[in-house]
Amino acid sequence: MRGIRILQGMVLVCILLIPVLIFMFLKGFGTNTYEIPILYQKGTDSPFSECVQGDTTQHYIPDFTFTNQEGQPVGKAQMEGKITIVDFFFTSCPSICPVMSQEMERVYDMFQDEPNVQIFSISIDPEFDTPEILKEYAEDHHAQAGKWDFLTGDKLETYKLARCGFIIPTIDGNGIPDNFIHSDKFTLVDGQGRIRGYYSGTSREDVDLLMLETKILLHGNK
Asked: Is 65-218 a domain of CATH 3.40.30.10?
């Protein structure tokens, strides 16, 4: 009986030592980190003809200023020092935009009380999507200006920003909703204006990953 108790005691000691040994191993041989890539560190090599070609330096979102749903100017200046999640859409979109906006609403709810995270939804049909139209759309998604801005601006500037700034394929539908072509991607941009990732706005799993990586950037990953 005494031998059994000794054996049981030794087993218990071993079990208790396992987490200690694991901790010592991790401490001695390095730490686990979750690295979020910095995209386009050697230029974008953009396929679009209107974009600057041959640049091999870190790509940053270029300067721009559009108008939000409240008629206020919003753009690159408001991105400085904040994490910004950006998508391109239009309010009359008959296909992927409703799903994208629903998923973006989840992102908005997650970071609604976080002052260093914001959302820009940029219209690729600015001739139809006036600030008044965007305000109605924003209200449908319970979006507060300054936290989730719906933006409209000059058409040529918008398409150049999508293709050359965010490296997002975008084709003008000339007013016909079914003819517009744009990406379903949500773009994660850090406080320095660098693109850190793309995520499908029609995939719940991808949007979950976006929210996770936004939190990681928010809490110290540079």
From this structure: yes
